[in-house]
Amino acid sequence: MSGEIAPGRPGNLTPEQEEKLRRLWQLVFQVCGVSQLENGATPATTAAAAPAPVEKPSPKKGRMSIFSRRGRKESDPVESTPSAPAGPPPSVVLSPPKEGEHDKYGQTQHFYDTLASMTPESIRATIWSMVKHDHPDALLLRFLRARKWDVEKALVMMISTMAWRANEMKVDEDIMRNGDAAAAEAEKNATDPAQKRLGHDFLQQARIGKSFIHGVDKTGRPVCYVRCRLHKQGEQVEESLERYTVYVIETCRYLLQPPVDTATIVFDMTGFSLANMDYTPVKFMIKCFEANYPESLGAVLVHKAPWVFQGIWKVIRGWLDPVVANKVHFTNNVKEMEEFIAVKQLPKELEGEEDWEYKFIEPVPGENDRLKDTATRDRLLAARDMLVKEFEDATAQWIQHPEGEKAAEIKARRASLATQLREDYWGVDPYLRARSLYDRTGVLLAGGKIDFYPKAAAQETEKTVAELTNGVAAVKIAPAAVPAVETSPDDLD
Known about the structure:
By secondary structure, the protein is mainly alpha-helical.
């Protein structure tokens, strides 16, 4: 496990990469309506020509959901509520695409649609909501690396992702805020059959352990296991599959601690047959990682794939970006798995040495009571908003003074504020996010501390205590350990 910072991350940028990051912050501020220059002006875009105007899209009907997916009420919280000047959407014009360029997910159109349909302040709030405990620069750098340091393409991808999070999936205000507790409530008490089914399907995937996070690989990356044999096409409705996929990905983000910023996925194909193959959720998962969670995959292990998977893989590989496809490795036995995950940290069901089995713990009554404390939530968010503004101000100064006497001082200020934002997030987290299995099992602890092997740690502690206790007992009963002392009547009280 290495503590080195990988290239292209905060603290390890070349001068050229740092300049790209400054330019992206400039454009993000412009989209969000944030004044960033000392004279109060906003920067000009680096665009060359304007495409044909895009009409504002008509509102789309939301899908039925057990988690208020039809729309957010005014009382519903957002993780961070930074204010920004109100007004018309900013005019951001991008350079025309180069000949032969392909926009796989239509993100450029989505970008302009987002500018027409979302206010600058709502885009800004969604960005800071996604930051969570991360370094703000780290989020922007993911998009820059994914788009090979093309600033405009990174901006398009980033803003498209914000629309997906806020409008399509409602990641923070719904999926993560409600968690599995809301699914359990819907499964038990919902009067609408569709809502009851969604709650049941969501929980069923968690209960059987269709996919779960456990332990780390040799580089310290969290490992997400997917038991492919447990999926049957049609057993769960499509929306519940998508929601659970996003829920697991988002939960894994909470388990990332710098310098680790990616995860490993193990597709356990033991017992896989054609009855387990379902292309629709596979496509959704691919789109999630390629379009909305860039630079999040460290490695993908396909374990014990049967011969029938060969033709399926040819189809799937054709959907994958070459960069993602190159992260896929096929393993057939524990020796090949050991190249990525230590045998002692590989569960026995995969022929490893770890005596661990997945068990789902149902939501505990009262575990999410702090979500109801809106007064504390709003107070904490207001304080966080001040930190956000301070970071934005420092970033504006950093854009204005990339070099010179003030540069080092400004960089230090930004780094300090990023640390404060990270620590501050964990104070507000219980008022924004429903507790998860990983909170209940002691993997994700208060203050953002992580214990990937809580049971193992507890067993080790018990073993140490037992050894110490036995050692003390041995000392007490060993004749040579207790010197002989003569007692006389004068010694007695």
